[in-house]
Amino acid sequence: GNSVTQMEGPVTLSEEAFLTINCTYTATGYPSLFWYVQYPGEGLQLLLKATKADDKGSNKGFEATYRKETTSFHLEKGSVQVSDSAVYFCALSEGDDMRFGAGTRLTVKP
Amino acid sequence: GAVVSQHPSRVICKSGTSVKIECRSLDFQATTMFWYRQFPKQSLMLMATSNEGSKATYEQGVEKDKFLINHASLTLSTLTVTSAHPEDSSFYICSASRLATGGRDTQYFGPGTRLTVL
Asked: Is residue B116 less than 8 Å (CB to CB) from chain A?
């Protein structure tokens, strides 16, 4: 079956540091891949997505590339800010099957 | 780990009828539950945030009279789609927030409910 494995947190970085949150997936077909962000007390918000191999999703300085050969969709940002502190979820969607990673809590310190 | 269930997993109904979807946290008490819907090949869209014993907070553009949310206990939230129409056909997912050690919330997702309105 389909599954998502996400880098465990928590991750603590200093402002302006480089961020990578690893995400790998297992899928039987050709899923769409997503990164969602959740701020304290709020629901998920879509951060970025990619629907086919080699697509790069990007938003607010975050990027992730759909790598079919390595079944990965790692999230990166070149320079994090304190306001990026949140929980990040990697997810895949294939038809009615939606799978989430466990979430990675990121804390960015000034 | 913690488990969140949804019932039913699939439902087909006639236009004009109402459908209730349940979201249960099976082995923990959920401080907050969220309801999302997903259109084919699209991302999740947050519909509402539900806290036990209080009225749900709906996102802009979501009709509260059409999508009734009841969070009667710390383990159960229900979403009722009233007077359903074909455009309400979608995949509905809930998530439950569990207060973990150190005061941090952890999210657990239900498997989703496919609603088809004929």
From this structure: no
Tell me the pLDDT tens digit for each residue of B103-112.
Answer: 667 888 999 9
Q: How far apart are CA B102 and CA B118, in angstroms?
A: 47
pLDDT digits (tens, 9 = 90+) for A54-109: 999 999 999 999 999 999 999 999 999 999 999 999 999 887 788 899 899 999 99
B36: left (phi over 0), alpha (psi -120 to 50) or beta: beta
Six-digit token pair at B60? 């802009």
Please give, rounded to a whole number of angstroms, the shortest distance from the CA of A17 to a CA of chain B: 23
Please answer yes or no on whether B91 and A38 come within 8 Å at the CB atom: no
- Of A63-77, B21-35, B39-53, B58-72, the range with the lowest mean pLDDT is B39-53
Shortest Cα distance, chain A CAs vs residue B83, angstroms: 23
Strands (E), chain A: 3-6, 11-14, 19-21, 23-26, 32-38, 45-50, 56-59, 62-65, 75-77, 86-94, 97-100, 104-109
Rounded to the nearest 10°, the torsion over CA A62, A35, A102, A31 is -140
Q: Which residue has the higher pLDDT, A52 or B105?
A: A52
Interchain CB contact of A69 with B (< 8 Å): no
Phi, psi at B101, each rounded to 5°: -60, 140
